[in-house]
Amino acid sequence: MSSKFTIYTVLLVGSLALSGCSSSKPAVTAESTTTATPTVTAPPANGGSYSTVSALKAAYVKAGGACPDFIQTNKITLAAESAECSSNTVISTYLSSSDISQLIQNVKKLNADLKSSGGNSWLVGENWVINSPTTAEVQGKLGGKLVSF
User: Fold this and answer.
1) If DSSP codes are grouped into helix, strand and coil, which group holds residue 145?
2) Most distant CA pair in the chain, distance
3) Could you give the C-alpha distances from 106 to 36, 58, 132, in angstroms and in order?
4) What average pLDDT does this structure show over 35-64?
5) Does the pTM of the predicted model rise above 0.85?
């Protein structure tokens, strides 16, 4: 009978060891002690789109651009909306990317007609254009591509 008692005791102790003793503190695991590393999201390569020129202005300023004298003029040909941020910065939104392509072609033709070397460098997004001396500096935070002509 003692061997049955010993086997029973070993099984009982083993089952207690496997099930663990109950505790009011949760077990600490490697998963619960690690902290999440924040994910840094890059801007969309195409620069995304903005529904209004005011929304584009807010994104431009957040990216480090200056727009101290914002005046929505809607003077840019083919633009849905356009605004002046200063004497050398104009921002504009478009209904389609083909409107942006047409605008660039028009400016290239104008430069050729005027026999101008151009020197234009615009930051172009999905449906917007920023014409400013600071386009290269804000591209990393705003996205889009630099178009020079």
Assistant:
1) strand
2) 112
3) 50, 28, 18
4) 85
5) no
